[in-house]
Hints:
The complex is a heterodimer.
Chain A: E1 4-6, E2 11-14, E3 19-25, E4 32-38, E5 45-50, E6 55-57, E7 60-65, E8 70-75, E9 84-94, E10 97-102, E11 106-111
Chain B: E1 4-7, E2 10-13, E3 19-25, E4 31-38, E5 42-49, E6 56-57, E7 64-66, E8 76-78, E9 87-94, E10 102-103, E11 107-111
Parallel strand pairs in B: 2-11
Antiparallel strand pairs in B: 1-3, 3-8, 4-5, 4-9, 5-6, 7-8, 9-10, 9-11
Amino acid sequence: xxxVEQDPGPFNVPEGxxxxxxxxxxxxxxxxxxxxRQDCRKEPKLLMSVYSSGNEDGRFTAQLNRASQYISLLIRxxxxxxxxxxxxxxxxxxxxxxxxxxxAGTILRVKS
Amino acid sequence: IAGITQAPTSQILxxxxxxxxxxxxxxxxxxxxxxxxxxGLGLRLIHYSNTAGTTGKGEVPDGYSVSRANTDxxxxxxxxxxxSQTSVYFCASRAGGxxxxxxxxxxxxxxx
Lengths: 112, 112
């Protein structure tokens, strides 16, 4: 089983739609969680951190469920510019320090 | 320099040749990382360095070596390139355990 698993998609949605991505992780000792965004042929960039209480940043909402070991990202009122790959990232505490484990990514395509 | 730079941007290399990918950051981050990204597999950690003078092996270290002589630079060397090392290579850094990880723009390497 992969340490971090995501539905690869692609999710094809119309502008204005609401879309949700889920991600599961295997290590219950995981410390912190993030969503990164990666545009085609570019480097990943932090979209938002995920806190235990859930957090919202404009149209984006992230949720963490430690008991079920999953993280979600909700995007409301999708824009064309939201088209990208969304990477679920889990920070795991290892014997040598912290290790970020990346999911393979979920592709989102927003169409007009 | 602002953030992380990588060089070269892209390279085509004959199998068996030696190649060093360069990575420099100006944020005085302690930790630096090298990843490769292949379709469907996501980002995989090759080597990491928690602080200048120390390095460690990641998930896929075979065929690669790194050094960390100072805080800013973290070169990745392929001693004798093979076609399976064709990939996009990202260097990354972060200040501490729970901090955001910043990525360089990537190096596209093709080994023929």
